[in-house]
Write a structure and sequence with these properties.
Layout (H helix, E strand, L loop, with lengths): L8 E7 L1 H5 L3 H10 L3 E8 L3 H7 L9 H8 L4 E8 L2 H9 L4 H7 L4 H5 L8 E3 L3 H11 L18
Antiparallel strand pairs: 1-3, 1-4, 2-3
The protein binds ribavirin triphosphate and magnesium ion.
Organism: Dipteronia sinensis
Keywords: ATP-binding, Kinase, Nucleotide-binding, Signal, Transferase
Catalytic activity: a 2'-deoxyribonucleoside 5'-diphosphate + ATP = a 2'-deoxyribonucleoside 5'-triphosphate + ADP; a ribonucleoside 5'-diphosphate + ATP = a ribonucleoside 5'-triphosphate + ADP
């Protein structure tokens, strides 16, 4: 890091189909901006089964996997690249625990408490590590790396 500058970090925030269809997008974006994040990129994507399964590949052996894929393909999602110091941990903290019912009790001001329903329909995703953030950024934004580089394909997505 260079002298006198704060090292910024990027993360992926994703508003899941229930968040988009429930009209929570503007409220969530307001929380994001009021919490000091910059929204560097955003795109609306309709995931197909293959893409959703790839995104959540780490959970492929879990009993909830097929239900998760059905949920994540049930409508469009809004994917954003957020940037700020400590973005990965801070966005995870802001969204609250996975189970939105628990979030409403233990983290009543969290995003999942605000717009989630249960342990599956929890309205938002956040990258859980620097490696996940990097993987998810290249998953949705071709040519984008955690280092902040934009190549000639920036602005396109598949
Ligand atoms: P995410 O990856 O979406 O940010 O959520 P997370 O880290 O808090 O939770 P994770 O364990 O990675 O689970 C991924 C998503 O799978 C659904 N899920 N359903 N029915 C269930 O018991 C269950 N558990 C997890 C949720 O949509 C969760 O966000
Ligand atoms: Mg996760």
């Amino acid at each position: 890091s260079s002298e006198g500058s704060v090292e910024k970090e990027k993360t992926i925030a994703l508003i899941k189909p229930d968040g988009v269809s429930g009209n929570y997008t503007d409220g969530i974006k307001r929380v994001i901006l009021e919490s000091g994040f910059s929204i560097l990129r955003e795109t609306i994507v309709q995931l197909d089964e293959d893409k959703a399964a790839n995104f959540y590949a780490e959970h492929s052996s879990r009993t909830f996997f097929s239900s998760l894929i059905k949920y994540m393909t049930s409508g469009p999602v809004l994917v954003m690249v957020l940037e700020k110091e400590n973005a990965i941990a801070d966005w995870r903290g802001l969204i609250g625990p996975t189970d939105a019912r628990k979030a409403k009790i233990t983290h009543p001001h969290s995003v999942r408490a605000m717009c989630g329903l249960d342990s599956e329909k929890n309205c938002v995703h956040g990258s859980d590590s620097a490696l996940s953030a990097q993987r998810e950024m290249s998953f949705f934004f071709k040519g984008m790396s955690s280092g902040g580089g934009f190549d000639k394909d920036a602005g396109t997505h598949t």
